[in-house]
Design a protein that fits this description.
Order of helices and strands: HHEEEHEHEHEEH
Low-confidence stretches: 41-46, 192-196
Number of strands: 7
Mean pLDDT: 85
Distance between the termini: 81 Å
Helix content: 25-40%
Radius of gyration: 27 Å
Shape: elongated
Structural class: alpha/beta
Strand order of the largest sheet: 5-4-3-6-7
Strand content: 15-25%
Largest sheet: 5 strands, mixed
Length: 197
């Protein structure tokens, strides 16, 4: 008698998955989703600065052309937006473009705010090159030792801080910040116009 295969006999053989296997895969999926969610919650907590409503550490830093700018220069006169950035950071370049547009459309000599872009680049030439390429209108400061960044507990770039006229940090955010959000935080009634990035 010839052997008959299951294929010839019209019998389909499908692998059976046991209930234990289904439960194990389901439990692993749920556990993975939970761990991923929990890690993201912790990461968000670690990312965002915790120094809001504290006195801003005073600092001074040099501009690419050798001038020295200090936070104390603005105390009692202007709110200061401090943005930590780096030339190698793609989101920083986008952020600098957005801030430049905001500054050009909202800042005058009599404005009650100033933006200070603090580069944490070790290579001052790289920071200067990017600032020149982007034609930044606001002061660019160099923090090659990251002394200023450490004082602000900067945890990544770009990071934005807003310091009120009394020297208190009123706002902090890691990651890109839209100019509309910045306008709101500074109390500027900004209306979008054509050409906004």
């Amino acid at each position: 008698m010839d052997a008959v295969s299951h294929k010839d006999a019209g019998v389909s053989v499908t692998p059976r998955i046991s209930v234990k296997t289904i439960l194990a895969v389901s439990a692993l999926t749920i556990f993975t989703a939970f761990i991923t969610w929990r890690a993201r919650v912790l990461e968000t907590r670690l990312e965002q600065p915790t120094n809001v409503n504290t006195q801003a550490p005073d600092f001074w830093a040099a501009t690419p052309d050798g001038r020295t700018v200090s936070l104390a220069d603005f105390r009692g006169q202007k709110k200061v937006v401090v943005v930590f950035w780096a030339s190698w950071c793609a989101p920083c370049r986008f952020e600098m473009n957005s801030l430049n547009w905001f500054y050009q459309h909202n800042h005058t000599a009599s404005s009650d705010f100033e933006i200070l872009a603090i580069s944490v680049d070790l290579d001052t030439a790289a920071a200067t090159k990017v600032a020149t390429e982007l034609k930044l209108s606001f002061p660019v400061l160099l923090d090659t030792s990251e002394r200023v960044a450490r004082g602000y507990e900067e945890r990544g770039v770009p990071t934005t801080f807003i310091i009120d006229k009394s020297g208190k940090i009123t706002y902090a955010h890691v990651g890109g910040d839209s100019s509309m959000n910045l306008a709101h935080e500074l109390g500027i009634d900004e209306k979008p116009t054509q050409g906004e990035p």
